[in-house]
Design a protein that fits this description.
This protein has 338 residues and is an alpha/beta fold. It contains 9 helices and 16 strands. Bound molecules: 5-S-methyl-1-O-phosphono-5-thio-D-ribulose (MRU).
Length: 338
Amino acid sequence: MEMIDWQEGCPVFLDQTRLPLAVEYRRGETVEQMAQAIEKLQVRGAPLIGVSAAYALALAARLNQGAADFMAAMEKDEARLRRTRPTAVNLFWALDRAMGEIRAAWQAAGPQGAAKRALEVAQTMKAEDIAINRRLGAIGQQVIQDGDGVLTHCNAGALATAGYGTALGVIRAAVEAGKRVHVYADETRPLLQGARLTCWELMEDGIPVTLQADGMAAVLMAQGRVNKVVVGADRIARNGDTANKVGTYGVAVAAAYHGVPFYVAAPQSTIDRSLERGDQIPIEYRDGQEMRGFQGAASAPPAVETFNPAFDVTPARLIAGIITEEKIYRPKDGKFDL
Ligand code: MRU
């Protein structure tokens, strides 16, 4: 399944807000539509946000062909894309990389050359992401034993990337290596990425999965049904502090209490070496309406005050290892040196 591709001059992406009820693809015909697709989580998950932003710049480069000042128009579009979601560093990493290539191609060959290069960069990033996830999975599956119950939070699967997934890539690779794995998927309030996306994609692949409410992680650990946790990441600071979907921190605390190893799986592009610690990671706060109901049905008093950060930060000392496409980083005295 393609999460995003390029068809007849535009990005075409799978609308993840419709899953699992409908598999629907949408065309991004303007940069504004692509920015809103990222903001509304039609495309989501740190690596896929980055790849989608690169496709949005390819679209921008095509649409800006006739602009009086091509690079000024590109910079305006890039600035719009930078304002979409603040936490996943992959967005900024992808925009920086793509804009560098576009600028060089424009200097050498003008707007046409820049547009051609912009699309090549997006397609390359997409292919690279899948290859990275496969390498990460092959390395990470070593931490999974035959018969493990593995808890995951949110969706760090094929749907969150260009394909295969990070945390779910580790699980897929373990299954491909012949290990029996049972996945426990936190539903992931308030937007239910675990229930809607993780359960759906694992069931499509025939990987056994149980769905539980977010508050049940500790109970599953106490019962001995979960003996590993593997989650994805949106941004990792140099000391290993990790931002991931809100609720991840609570899972890590429960895992530490029960002696269950807690792993983070993420590509190198998710590590932000410009930040020393996790309290420097910008956290996205989303509209409280997401807490007061779901898909139009109210589930709380309409005027209730809400607390709705999209991410939390798990301190490095709760993390047993950070699995990347290059190696598994292990902490020394509760700290990583990434
Ligand atoms: O708000 P989302 O759905 O974009 O949040 C996604 C997550 O928190 C994922 O765990 C993270 O991006 C890693 S995806 C491989």
